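hiii, so i know i said id send this last week but things got crazy w the move. better late than never?? heres the sequnce for the chain we talked about at the cafe, plus the structure i predicted for it. fair warning i was half asleep when i ran it
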Amino acid sequence: MDPRRNFTNFFLGSLSKSLRNSWCRLNRLFFFALLLINLLGETSQRIFAQEPSELARVGILRFINNTQSENFGWVEQSLPDAIDLSMRARFEYVRLNHEQVQKAKDSVPPTEVIEGGLHRFSQNDAARIAQLSSADILIYGDFIADEANSEIVLRSVIFNAASGRVIGRVENRTPMNTRIFRNIDQMAAEIVSEIYRYALQENQNSARAKDNLKLLVLVPSYKTAKEERQAKEELEVLKRELSARTPGRYLTIFEFFNEYRVTLQEQTASLTYAKNRQKIRLQLWLEGYGVRDAMIVLVSENKVNITAIGTKKTAQVSYAISASPEEKAKQMEEVQEKMRGKMELVKSDGISDRRLTVLVGFGASRGILTAGNHLGLFTGANVHASYKLTRFWEPFVHIEGGYGLPFENVSYAFSGSILSGLSLTTFWGRFAVSPYLGTGLYAIQIHAKAGVFNVLLSSVGGGFSLFFMVTPAWGIALDGRTQYIFDLETPALFMGGSLATVLRF
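okay and structure toks below
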């Protein structure tokens, strides 16, 4: 009988038994991976927290008049001024000198052709103007006349120079009458909203924003267990809503007590301050722990009352527990708008807004333990791809293929493996570290003096990559990894490293 067939039958039986015995172990390892990645993320955020960023330089171009009429020439200047006025109410930033921006604009003719043979600036034109004017964010656009509807169509584009990407577009149609003045202000507000969404995302990616602790203090007004449960559930709803809208680290008062190990005496005192609406005493107590923003939440008689207190401002809103999600969201936006100061519009490194990361590398690995000691050095290529879904949820797939050099009784070998799991990429400047852990399969074909052997086994592995981004889209990386091969009698552990090219999209 063919010995290779005997080996295959033996292997399939061993594999089935091995998989059954290791299934629970794989589950435990996977959940341990989640906890470890979370811990690594928090640690790296603290170690590599960036210094406060420099304010972004914003260039606002005169809008191109594509109406072919001088009657609307004033719009060219009115739009940039309206945009700047709206932005200054929401952001701290540096507006570039008008002459500096205009000089850069005049040296770059618009190349995008629109209907009627007219022109507007393309994205490549914007990149060139931003470079010449040293703008981090460039706002430009044009307007045309829709004679059939007696309307002016205003079109604006917001360009981020660091990433070379458009981060917002706004289009507005306005009648050719006095309403055009109001609509210009409305368009300016819409442009600011687009920039705010961009800035919010940037701040959520910064360690400073995540460490900005905001506390939700529940007033103990409940009298029954049901009322207490209802109040705490509403507190969790508020926590999720607020976290989604404004960057920061939100804790309920009870989570705060546990995390900061507040004594029972202080817990009672703080809740008493909240219950008696002693805002100053509560605020001073919170500042002793470094908390400068809090919301006092009273849930009673199916109604939620929220009083926000900060170092300089106080605001209050209320709504019914049965209110629609839209109404609750509106009230949350209102209280945050009252409390919100100006947001810093900071320079972007152009990296944080890219979610897909692909590494293509070449390297070597070496095995140890029972089976690994009988195999030589493997050289080959690997591809690692990850996609950032949220702060911590970054699934990855790692595929690797190798050629085993002659060693002892092995003439040569071919190996291949696939791992999938979770990774976490943390940037500080152009550098980044990305630990990853996952489970998968390992296959090897061994050409030895005794014959050819094919093996397929389950595995668990992980590693880390160190990046240096030369540009926001391209960089280099060093990758180190290890992979354990499950086999009851002949386990193996492979350790290796590679030099890789990094592409981010």
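btw The first strand starts at residue 57 and ends at 60. thought thatd interest u
miss u guys!!
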